[in-house]
Design a protein that fits this description.
Elements: H1 2-22, H2 30-43, H3 52-55, H4 67-73, E1 82-83, H5 86-89, H6 94-109, H7 111-133, E2 142-145, H8 148-164, E3 173-177, H9 182-195, E4 198-202, H10 211-227, E5 232-238, H11 250-259, E6 264-268, H12 280-283, E7 287-291, E8 303-307, H13 329-333, H14 342-345, H15 347-354, H16 360-383, E9 397-401, H17 411-425, E10 427-428, E11 430-433, E12 446-451, H18 458-473
Parallel strand pairs: 1-10, 3-4, 3-5, 5-6, 6-7
Antiparallel strand pairs: 2-8, 7-8, 9-12, 11-12
Helix pairs in contact: 6-7, 8-9, 10-11, 16-18
Amino acid sequence: MPRQRTMSYHRRFSLFLLLQHQKPQFLKFKPLFQLLLAYYHDHYPNHNAVPKSHIHIKPSLSSFITDSKIQSEFAHHDPGVARINNGSFGCCPAPVITALQQWQLKYLRQPDHFYYNELRQGILKTRTIIKDLVNAYDVDEISVLDNTTTAVAIVLQKTAWAFSEGTYNKGDAIIVLQYGYGAVRNSIKAYVSRAGGDVIEVHFKFPVSSNNEIISAFRKALKEGKTNGKNIRLAVIDHVTSMPSFVIPVKELVKTCREEGVDQVFVDGAHGIGCIDVDMKEIGADFYTSNLHKWFFSPPAVAFLYCRKLSKCSDLHHPIVSHDYGNGLAIESAWVGTRDYSPLLVVPSVLEFISRFEKGIHGIMERNHEAVVEMGKMLAKAWGTNLGSPPEMCAAMIMVGLPSCLGISSENDCVKLRTHLRESFGVEVHIYYRTPEDGEVEPITGYARISHQVYNKIDDYLKFRNAINQLVGNGFTCTSLLD
């Protein structure tokens, strides 16, 4: 008899769910449905025995953010500009901007209360969210900073001290990629080279056709460095290179570093979080940094630095020395003088915004990747050019060759053309100059780095396509642009 009552309940509840799914007017009873569903799961744990066809309910599409709502959340963007350069400065939706302003006002209203009772708790909450997002072992491994450039300074400062204090010998080296970010390369000059360290640069060709090209070039550079008797103290590896842009096989390169006895590995993931999967346990680096204002919808400027607990992190210090010097990098970074800490505190609000998308940040990453590949292929076909890497080697940015007849012959030409596209056509896009190799016939020397973020529309890329087609049709070359 009890079994009959249970089955009868299953049948009635299954019908109830089906009615909820099929009849919009039932949505007003959603709280009641949720209570009944909770009761059902608590009292009938063997509900999996019910035929799946009776209980499989797809989520209503209305439960996720719509395209029109996405556009309204970014209505503060200039409507006259096709903004396909999210990779440079990122974006921030309206509700996060509102949260930012609320934090700013909270500080300005009562700074003492804010400092003593809210700032550290808020930053700890942000660190905890980041810890979970990147699958770190412990929240103590996460420090919140203003920018990845600051994180680079922290790690390279530690390396410079090791040279000056005799822990490293003059001539010991660090290894970096040829296409490392410009600010990072300058930081290496400022900290490592000045302290007496050598730099080994990994060279490979662009366009790049496979991960194996990068892995082979990296192993070759390591081998040559060791053959010359150098101790390689640090490897600085990009996760997603900036210009030209493609995804680096960081897991394989970190593994190679471990096999070859490189002391420590630092992954520069400035474009990482929100753009590509970031998993500290899988990557296995000693240090990892990423901006949250590029692809994670945070306002500028906020970033994090991960330091693996098993690594030597006690001598990491913020380059701005303040009252908490010596209390650990995470604590030091939480206060580096009077400034606006609001961007570091809105990460919970960012997470709320992201939760409105199907599959959250992973769904956004999939969406951006698929769209940027589709748009990249469309543009390359329209111009008779090629992509800078296979689709599987890009995330939310991809390199697209520009027509060679534009006459891009220097980095200065790229800057001029980019300005011309902005001012004359309302197109914002990053352009890269590729030095041609000897013997190339009509080489493609200019590549556009296009980005895709949730606010982008196909019209943005069509506007770019049409602008380039118009320039080509008019016989335009970069020589016609004044410096």
